[in-house]
Specification:
The protein has 276 residues and is of the alpha/beta class. It contains seven helices and 13 strands. A hairpin with a 4-residue loop joins β2 (19-23) and β3 (28-32). α1 (6-14) runs parallel beside α4 (118-146) and α5 (182-193) packs antiparallel against α7. This is N-formylglutamate amidohydrolase.
C-alpha cells in the first residue's frame, strides 16, 4: 500500500491505474484492483483518534468503539473498489455534512470537556474534505467509463439498544430514487435475507425499519451523480458482543464469504439492466 496525497490518488483514478493507497494524513484508504461499475464503502470502519484530542474527550475508547462500525471494511475487502475511513467518527463523521461533522455531544453525552479550538476542528475538516474529493473523482470516473454506478455503503448498528425486534439487515432508501431503482432495492434486501450465518443467527432484512438512509455519503453521491445508486446497508451487530467489545470472527467471515459472491452478482445484474 502506498501513501499518497489526494492529488496523487485522483491522478491515478483519472488515469485508470490500479493501486492501493492510504491518504497522506492516514485518514482513509482506497483500493482499486479493477475498474468495474460498482464501489464498496465503509465510512465508519475507522477507530483512530488523534492523540491531541484524548485528554479533552469525555467518551472512553469503548464508548467510541460502540458507536463505530468495526469490521465493515473487512466484510467487503475482496471487492475490486473499496474506500474506507480510518479515523473515528468521534473526531469527524464522514457520514455527516462538513458543517456538523464534528460532534459537540454524541448519543446524549457531551463529548468534549472544553470546546475544541478552531485549529483542531480545521485539521479534522481538512481530512473530511480530502475524502470527498477522492469520492467525487472516483464516482465521476466510474460513471464516465460505464455510464452508471452502484455503491454499497456498509454500516452496522447496535441492535441491543432497541426495545423491539429489529432486522439483521436494514436498507435505508429514503434519499434514493425508489421508483427507478425499485427492483434493485428489493433484490438486494432479498439477497441479504438469504445469508447463512453461524451461531444460530437468523438473517432478516427490511427497508427503512431502523434507519432511513440519511447519511451524507449517500446524499453527496446521489446529489452529484444522477446515474449512481447508493445502497445504505446496515448490519445489526450480531457479529460481535457489542456490550463487551468482543468480535465474532466466524460471523464476520460468513458475511464476507457470502458478499464475495452475492454482492458481485447483484452489481452485475444492476449494470446489465441499466447500462443501455
Amino acid at each position: 500500500m502506498e501513501r499518497l496525497s489526494v492529488q496523487e490518488i485522483i491522478h491515478k483514478i483519472t488515469s485508470e491505474e490500479v493501486f492501493e493507497a492510504v491518504s497522506n494524513e492516514y485518514s482513509f484508504t482506497v483500493k482499486i484492483d479493477d475498474y468495474v461499475p460498482y464501489v464498496c464503502g465503509a465510512v465508519h470502519d475507522g477507530h483512530q483518534f488523534r492523540k491531541e484530542l484524548w485528554s479533552n474527550c469525555l467518551h472512553t475508547e469503548y464508548d467510541r468503539w460502540y458507536e463505530e462500525d468495526p469490521c465493515t471494511k473487512q466484510m467487503i475487502a475482496s471487492h475490486p473498489i473499496v474506500i474506507a475511513g480510518l479515523d473515528s467518527r468521534f473526531e469527524y463523521d464522514l457520514n455527516r455534512a462538513p458543517d456538523n461533522a464534528i460532534y459537540e455531544d454524541a448519543w446524549g453525552k457531551q463529548l468534549w470537556k472544553t470546546p475544541l479550538p478552531s485549529e483542531q476542528k480545521s485539521k479534522s475538516l481538512q481530512k473530511h474534505s480530502a475524502f470527498y474529493e477522492v469520492v467525487h473523482a472516483l464516482i465521476h470516473k466510474i460513471e464516465e467509463k460505464f455510464g452508471l454506478c452502484i455503491v454499497y455503503d456498509m454500516h452496522s448498528y447496535n441492535w441491543q439498544r432497541w426495545d423491539r425486534e429489529v432486522p439483521t439487515w436494514n436498507l435505508g432508501t429514503s434519499n434514493v430514487d425508489q421508483i427507478r431503482f425499485k427492483q434493485e432495492i428489493e433484490s438486494w434486501r432479498a439477497i441479504l435475507e438469504k445469508m447463512p450465518l453461524p451461531k444460530g443467527i437468523k438473517s432478516t432484512s427490511k427497508i427503512n425499519d431502523t434507519f432511513q438512509g440519511n447519511g451524507y455519503f449517500l446524499k453527496y453521491i446521489t446529489q452529484n451523480f444522477k446515474n449512481t445508486l447508493v445502497l445504505a446497508t446496515e448490519i445489526a451487530k450480531v457479529y460481535c458482543d457489542e456490550l463487551n467489545q468482543v468480535i465474532y470472527p466466524e460471523v464476520v467471515q460468513a458475511v464476507k464469504v457470502y458478499l464475495d459472491v452475492m454482492l458481485k452478482e447483484h452489481a452485475e445484474t444492476f449494470y446489465a439492466k441499466h447500462k443501455s
